[in-house]
Write a structure and sequence with these properties.
Blueprint (H helix, E strand, L loop, with lengths): L4 E4 L2 H9 L3 H9 L5 H10 L1 E11 L2 E12 L6 E8 L7 H18 L2 E7 L3 H9 L3 E2 L3 E3 L2 E9 L1
Parallel strand pairs: 4-5
Antiparallel strand pairs: 1-2, 2-3, 3-4, 5-8, 6-8, 7-8
Length: 155
């Protein structure tokens, strides 16, 4: 198995991500108002304090596994908004990326004591992932007619 490299995400990473999004991620981005995922991904990246990409090198070139970032929540200086989107390539590297992701949470908490976001409730894999990361879920809500779960983690 090829090693994962973590790099500062560039626009070509966002484009690769948008082309190869997992179905659940694509549905979530669409439910948030972006039927074409690339503008939504670029908007998330532009509003983030930092954005990283997990990549692997293949004979055909660099492949994106996932891209994630952390944004400030407007009007709430104690709250950061983490996000992550993944490609189909993540399947073979899920456990390695999970181990790395667990180190990202303390780094996020160094910037914000509260981390908060929403996840498409229909996306079982993402709901499970967020639970593994130690977030707690709030009551279900709807966004654009789609069920979402708010999540939060505090230091």
């Amino acid at each position: 198995m090829r090693p994962i490299r973590i790099v500062a995400a560039q626009d070509h990473h966002l484009c690769d991500l948008a082309r190869r999004l997992r179905a659940g991620d694509r549905a979530e981005v669409a439910a948030l108002g972006y039927p074409d995922p690339l503008p939504g991904i670029r908007a998330s990246a532009a509003s983030s304090l930092w954005v990283k990409a997990g990549v692997i090198d293949t004979p055909k070139g660099e492949r994106v596994l996932a891209v994630w970032g952390l944004g400030a929540v407007a009007g709430e200086p104690e709250v950061g908004g983490p996000w992550l989107l993944s490609t189909r390539s993540i399947e073979r590297h899920r456990s390695a990326l999970l181990r790395y992701a667990k180190t990202e949470i303390p780094a996020m908490h160094q910037q914000f004591p509260i981390l908060r976001g929403v996840v498409d409730a229909r996306y079982a894999g993402a709901v499970r992932w967020i639970g593994w990361m130690g977030f707690q879920y709030g009551p279900p809500m709807e966004i654009n007619g789609v069920p979402f779960l708010p999540f939060e983690r505090r230091v």
